[in-house]
Amino acid sequence: MTLSPIRKVYQGIADRRQMFRMFDRHAQRAKRSSDDAALYRGKWFEIDQVGHDTMLAILPPLWIKAEMFALREFLTDSITSVFFSLTIDDRLRFFHAYCDLFDKGSPDRMRAAIVERESRPLKAMTREERLEHIWSSTHDDYRGYADDGWAEHLRGRRTVLVYGGQRGTMLKLLDQLTDAEISAKLPVHLRYLPDAIAA
């Protein structure tokens, strides 16, 4: 299965505090470099109007066009925050996304992907969206990156703390969580959503 490079990383509406926390969901990684664009490119989440309007007021945007604006400050060489105000199903909603501005069509493709994802009549989540939500909502003390204590080929991959029953708590690779572990880490209102087919 090929996952879309554009994907939702948090279910629900992030308030201002959560929005700022999510701007750098990968702050704990050991080696920060300009090659980090893949960590951010195409990731998006919904925010509230207060968060959207706060970001519009902080600095003059790099550009503004219908329904969107881009921040002047770049996260990597070409990745920056783009904020959207979109009417979906007759309701005005607000979103944050990381777009690669070297790719001129990136903001428009992001807009289309958000509208398509949020217009689905049945709320569902892909496995990847479940894992991204777990990563986004887990406190920094309980998530991290595989370090020198892990096999060399696993180093740098994302980890989360899970409860292992009689074995107690343990670190586990995020992408190797079982369905039961994923369910246990999701809030109740997200546990029983049907699986969505990845785009």
Automatic annotation (TrEMBL):
<keyword id="KW-0614">Plasmid</keyword>
<dbReference type="InterPro" id="IPR009862">
    <property type="entry name" value="DUF1419"/>
</dbReference>
<dbReference type="Pfam" id="PF07215">
    <property type="entry name" value="DUF1419"/>
</dbReference>
<protein>
    <recommendedName>
        <fullName>DUF1419 domain-containing protein</fullName>
    </recommendedName>
</protein>
